[in-house]
């Protein structure tokens, strides 16, 4: 009985800590969105140090944009990297952007694509559009218009307004067979990511 009680307390503590961390991040995000960056920093910093992935992403934002703290790509990479290692999609996308532009790291389309793919699989529509663009233009990979259209279409279905322009442009320039293949790939992706589409409804 004693072991069970201790285990139960441990599980409860972990769940409570996770919920608290989520609340901390959102409090910081609310402050960030209204321009109260000092509060965002004060909320995110301790939560990030405690390992909360969303708050680590928030700290990366502050350093990458030079808000409250001096702009520091190395610190931004550190915090985005810690969050990305915990599968935080927005942080993975930001790492892709930094590698694509050579911010704090050597410019690398290969590394950018690696992070865009991870973020795209996590439902980050900006990463899906970036990934589609790389396939459309053959950046670091063989040109693949079907794969490009797949990612543009997924982003549209997840609510990205800008992706529609890319989708329409490409759909008019490929064959009916390629369109059908892209549609099948989109359906297969959503079969594996059903909760993402449900969240947009």
pLDDT averaged over residues = 90
Low-confidence sequence ranges = 1-20
The rounded distance between the terminal residues' Cα atoms is 45 Å
Cα-based radius of gyration, to the nearest Å: 20 Å
Sequence of secondary-structure elements: HHHHHHHHHHH
Number of strands: 0
Class of secondary structure makeup: mainly alpha
User: What sort of overall outline do the alpha carbons produce when their principal axes are compared?
Assistant: globular
The structural domain count equals 2
If helices are DSSP runs of H or I spanning 4 or more residues, what is the number of helices? 11
Q: Could you estimate the helical fraction of the residues in percent?
A: over 70%
Proportion of residues in extended strands:
under 5%
Largest sheet: none
Mind sketching the topology for me?
Layout: H1 2-33, H2 37-49, H3 53-65, H4 73-84, H5 89-101, H6 109-121, H7 125-137, H8 145-157, H9 163-171, H10 176-192, H11 194-199
Helix pairs in contact: 1-2, 2-3, 3-4, 4-5, 5-6, 6-7, 7-8, 8-9, 8-10
Give structural notes.
The protein has 201 residues and is mainly α. The chain has two domains: 1-86, Serine Threonine Protein Phosphatase 5, Tetratricopeptide repeat (Alpha Horseshoe); 106-201, no CATH class. 77% of the residues lie in helices and 0% in strands. Residues 1-20 have low confidence and may be disordered.
Descriptive keywords:
mainly alpha; 201 residues; 11 helices
Summarize the structure.
The chain is mainly α and 201 residues long. Helix content is 77%, strand content 0%.
